[in-house]
Amino acid sequence: MSNKKNTTLFMGYSGYFSQAIILSLIKALEVQIKDIEESQTISRRLYIVFIELSQNVMKYSKRDYINNYDSEKILIEHDEKNYYVTAINNIDNKTLLKIENILLNICELNKEEITKKYNELRKSGETSHENGGGIGLYQLARKSDNIFYEIKKLEDNLSRLEITVQINK
């Protein structure tokens, strides 16, 4: 669970995710970041995290508009000290188990160990995007100051995954 308190919404989207929609959201994010004149380092980290989380939502979401689970969202919020990029999506429990195991591993590692693991995965191709994620989560961990996640079971085979990535200003 994240420690977000008294945050302001910087940008948000809820609905169907596709590559075209993600590209439009990135363009909107670029404009908004220019408007607030954020540092290049923070801007780049926000882009990387936003893109990776959006791609995860697009790739792993189990859409359920019939039951109105409001299944796909991405939000960027901020307070005086941090940005928080949050992705929320429904996901089948088999895929969720793989992702949760990776997140648990990430939470046990320090920054140096995360970078080492990321580099190992890149070289080996063991956990490419095509093979079910992993390397992207390590990329998030490299570019963030903290990662929080929460899981809510919806049905026997379906859960809601919320991942929040904190980036210090």
List keywords for this structure.
single chain, 169 residues, alpha+beta, Heat Shock Protein 90, 5-stranded antiparallel sheet, globular
Short description:
By secondary structure, the chain is α+β, with helices and mostly antiparallel strands. Helices cover 46% and strands 27% of the residues.
CATH superfamily: Histidine kinase-like ATPase, C-terminal domain
Instruction: Please identify the top-level CATH class.
Output: Alpha Beta
- Per DSSP, the total helix count is 5
User: What is the name of the CATH topology?
Assistant: Heat Shock Protein 90
Spatial strand arrangement across the major sheet:
1-2-3-5-4
- The structure class reads alpha+beta
Beta-strand content bin: 25-35%
Total strand segments: 5
Globally, the shape reads globular
Topology:
Layout: E1 8-14, H1 19-36, H2 40-60, E2 72-78, E3 82-92, H3 93-108, H4 111-124, H5 135-143, E4 146-155, E5 158-168
Antiparallel strand pairs: 1-2, 2-3, 3-5, 4-5
